[in-house]
Amino acid sequence: MCEITRKWMGIGYDNGLVYGIAQGMGQGITKTIINQLTKNLGSILEYIINKINDSNEEDLDQLLLNISDIDKEEDILKYIY
Predict the structure, then answer these.
(1) Nearest alpha carbon to residue 72 among 30, 50, 40
(2) Which of 1, 19, 57, 70 ranks highest by number of CB atoms within 10 Å?
(3) Which candidate, 9, 18, 71, 15, places its Cα nearest to that of 40?
(4) Which pLDDT score is estimated for 9?
(5) Are 55 and 33 in contact (CB under 8 A)?
(6) Are the CB atoms for 31 and 1 separated by under 8 Å?
(7) pLDDT at 80
(8) Is residue 53 a contact partner of residue 25, using CB atoms and an 8 Å limit?
(9) Where are the beta strands (DSSP E) in 1-81?
(10) pTM
C-alpha cells in the first residue's frame, strides 16, 4: 500500500513540476512582450498590461508575431481580446 501511495505522490509531484515550469515560461514570455512594447511605445496603460497578462497563449503568439506593426496602444488591442 505504501508503494502505491509513493507512486501516486510521485506522479502528482511530476505533474505539478511540469505545470509550474510551463507557468514560469509563460510569465517570462509575457514580461518580455511587455518590456518590448514599453521600449517601442514609451509607456503602456495598466489596463493593457493587465489584458496582456490575462491573454491566452494563442493571443500572445499573435501579438509577438505582429509586434513590429504596433505603433500605438490601440494596435495592441487588435491582437488581444
Answers:
(1) 40
(2) 70
(3) 71
(4) 62
(5) no
(6) no
(7) 87
(8) no
(9) none
(10) 0.66
Angle between helices 2-41 and 46-53 (to 10 degrees): 150
37 CB-near residues (< 8 Å, 6+ apart): 44, 52, 67, 70, 76
**Neighbour count for residue 40 (Cβ, 10 Å):** 13
Terminal-to-terminal C-alpha distance of the chain: 49
Chain Cα centroid distance, residue 58: 10
Residue type, 57: E
Burial class (CB in 10 A: 0-12, 13-18, 19+), 46: exposed
Name residues of the chain where pLDDT drops below 50. Answer: none
Contact status, residue 63 vs residue 55, Cβ threshold 8 Å: yes
Cell readout for 77 is 488591442
